[in-house]
Amino acid sequence: MKLFRSFSLSLFVVLFISCKTTQTPVATTGNLSTFEKLASMEHVVSIEKREPVSHFDENYEIWFEQPIDHNNLSKGTFKQRVFLGFENPSKLVIVELQGYGIGSEKAGELASHYQANQLNIEHRYFNKSRPETIDWNTLTIENAAKDQKRIIDAIRKTLYPDAKFISTGISKGCQTTMAHRRYFPDNVDACVCYVGPLNFEREDPRVYEFLNTVSTQENREKVREFQELCFENRAALLEIMKQEAKEKEMSWEFGVENALDYTILEYAFAFWQWGTPIESIPNKNAFPEAIYKHLIDVVGYGFFEEKSVEALQPYFWAALTQQGIYGYETAPFKQYLNTEDIYKFDWAFPDEITKDFDPIPMKDIQTFLDNSAEDMLFIYGEYDAWSATAVELDKDAAKREVYKFVLPQGSHTTRIKSFSPEKQKEIYNIIDGWLKE
Prior knowledge:
With 437 residues, the chain is α/β, with parallel strands linked by helices. Helices cover 41% and strands 14% of the residues.
């Protein structure tokens, strides 16, 4: 029955859109269902009504046709996925701007708190929101912002002409939210950004300073000592990684030996990013199997393994060309690596393509935050390694209703709910004030 319903709805959309191209739209839409209204939107190529999730009364998957390059329409189009959790046309609309693909249809923190509608927009070129062949030079923060504006405008006009809109995003989604706000400051009413970096260089050196000063000296030394323990047991760990690669059918573009070195170097960043308990670090007498298990528990395989890198190719392109990333200091491990050069991510470019890093877009966002941004709120965790390049606000930012909250010892998982009840109330009072304006 579920398959039949999905087929029927898809058939309806095809017929509906086909009719739309040959007939004058009916002016009166008051009796149309939500599905019919959505299907009548310009640039919608397919729509499916799905099972409701969270508090939403209705849930839809919508595919929009978007220009590959908004500044050069001759390059063709691609389809971009959107999820809409529909609750009520008069209620607040939370716009989840993803920096990656859509991970869930469920309500996020803000939509849950306000029992609001939620518009969830997948980032261009992630998952299936991509053309068959990618022109990587069209993956820019400007094109992404224009994608989002086009979708928000269509949804607002169709369903929510009188509702408030708040955009939000986490990590790279926070970068996405900042960029959208900078390019189109009036497209939404306010923004709530979580744990997003604002990098000014491809390998932003502020990360190194952060890793050398975060937490206490004693805790930093324990992290460093574990990395040294890994290098001292490198031969044994390499054999374990090779066996794991065979069993899990994993491979690395730059080889398994480099993969192990990068994983050990990444450990410090990942450790602080995810709030790993200091007491979980194995002692110096641990067996190689325990050392390896902890290393992978913290770092994982998803950042360097070939199939994962292919799925993350849009992330690496954006990071290496506009949004920035970091590198790894090797000087502390010179005796193991025989170099003091910074290990970089240049290998993560698409095959046979490289491009210089352009710092202007991120610096432009900082200028926007310093001078004209309004009604924005930033959430960070103090110990999160991405807080090394967190947004820095001008002392007068609060006059423009721009705020930053940092959770003491918080990680990359920091959300509003992570704060004390008193601080949560302070944060939501700010957002409530925006909704009353």
